[in-house]
Amino acid sequence: MTTAAIKMTKSDLMAPPVAQSIQTRSLFIGLVGALASVAGVFIAPESFFSAYLSGYMFWLGLSLGCMAILMLHHLVGGAWSIVIRRILESGMMTLPMMFFLFIPILLHLPQLYFWARPEVLADPKTDPKIIEIAHSYLNFHGILERYILYFVIWIGMAYFLNRWSTEQDSIAGQSTLRFRALSGLGLVIYSLSISFAVIDWVMSLQARWISTIYGLIFIAGEALSALCFCVVIETILSKRKPMSDYLTDTEVHDHGKLILAFVMVWTYFNFSQWLIIWAGNLPDEIPWFVRRMNGGWGEVGMFLAVFQFAVPFALLLSRQLKRKARTLVRLASWIFLMRMIDIYWHVEPALHPTFHVSWLHFTILAGMGGLWMAYFFHNLRSRPLLPINAPQTLRLLGSGHE
Description:
Mean pLDDT: 91
Strand content: under 5%
């Protein structure tokens, strides 16, 4: 392909005007939701912080899931991921915003975590193990230092992957070795760092409870969220050029198969955790499930088992459903909603023994999500939808412009 053709292709591959329209609407929704959520701090403070943590973990998980799937793309290559690579890059580059959105949690730890309350630690009836953990690991300075470390790692990896991708658009013939090198090590670092972050921010809501597979549950869920999100975005873009020229049933089918794979992985990790704890029947491990099997929370767990695993699994066995974007997007959107409920089910029972839902759960999800989507579409519109000069893209453009 000639240089002139590549220059023409860069212009032709920019996101369609609908991306700007969605960005504007998302920003409006985000600002309205944010204002309503701020009001909730004063109107319903007993619900605000748990709802905020649920919403935060979901949208952070989407950012990190995009980065994880992107690193998987750089490791294995293939045509399945080239059409969603810029979607993944735009999603992971929302991490700077998520860094700042954690600050309300950091500044209000006692509202969420009982181990951060001085009166609890001063009470002689408090479990000595909790006091020991609070002094040695779960304390403000420890949470602050690890929070900064996590985001330095995540934003650092995202920065280099994004920067090298931009350079690849301008310079032909660049080696992809550095992408693979960073991604191989990066997936290991990501898995370890998010596992520790989940321990700090979610597992510690019930500080005596321990699960060595807990981080893997979130890793599988984040990847599932990212893949479902990509299917939704690619379907929106596939109705217009340039995505309509390059997204085929083959790529959609591959994305559907990956969603099926991560639905099964998520289910396997959850079932493994439940089976081991049930078989062990240990007093330090049981309370987590006791909370989530009573007070109305058991029905939420059953709902997730049926509608985040059983129904999607059965439907995704259909090859025809996975090959058509207009049918797969409905299921992907549903699983995306189930991911929100799943995070809610992990957070809320630790703070509310009986079923509890507040209007703040919706305003925070909408506010944080609207800002996330506006930032995402800003990133997506800044570069061509396909990475110019990537080996897979050059083959795709070569066949598409003959």
